[in-house]
Amino acid sequence: MTDTASPGRSPSRLPIPASGQKGESLTTVIVAFAANLLVALAKSVAAFMTGSASLVAEAAHSWADAGNEIFLLIADKRSKIPADDDHPLGYGREAYVWPLFAALGLFAAGSAVSVTHGITELLDPSPAEDFTIGYIVLAIAFVLEGLSLLQSARQARVEAETLDRDPLEHILATSDPTLRAVFAEDSAALIGLVIAAAGLGAHQITGSSAPDAIASILIGVLLGIVALILINRNRRFLVGELADPRVRTATIKALMAMPEVARVTYIRLEIVGPRQVSLIADVDLSGDDKESRLAVRLRDLEARLSRSTPALVGVVLSLSAPDEPTLA
What we know:
The chain is 65% helix and 10% strand. The chain is α+β, with helices and mostly antiparallel strands and 328 residues long. The chain has a 4-stranded mixed sheet.
């Protein structure tokens, strides 16, 4: 995970997750938005024609997802605003604000509507018709949602390999909220489609709208669980999340490989945006320079670290105290 330093030279990069996947995240969101928009329109027509409660829930689900992708596109754009005097670490954390709104929208527009409609249908049942149309729309939706899920899964797999993670572990841990949101929403969508198909089929077989209404409630509960998971993850990144311990260990090794650095006694790598971290560290520089010269060397080292690692958006180095233990 680290570069090998030759005499008199420092590693070209620190082992911070690369920011080059941002374009891939944008592609993932656009694919998801297009799929959800088409699916939402088809489900709405089918819900109107069949009168199925579960299809109404699925239509609400897809409209909520389509609206959420707009929030994710805003997040992608806002998080790329360059740093300025008021925001020296950039605007990366905006990437967690807008997906938080999206998760709240999924909870309100998707979960609450589905559960409410399902309960209403149980209390005041109404028959459904044109079941074939419902099955066709659900099948088309499954294909479109599946294609969107494959795109997000492919991105997750590639990124997970670079960090030696399991793809599912990476989706939960990644600092990229758009990847996590799209994968979670598409996974919930596929499960919801299966539940809706089961409810519609039971409605057709039994002639009772109760299974259809129960399916609507189950879809709402599913969306609520997904929304709460996404809300919690975005909250944690907004409050402040440290980088993966493996990245921390590799960064210590990379710093120690630099000829200028004799010891590292403190390090803090905090995520400040999608694949963006700030580095605060205490180091003991090699040699025995006077204080004014040490300050110049520290500033030079900070500048070179920032230039060599684009994902490193803030570097603050201080001198270690003689009695501070060296980090292993």
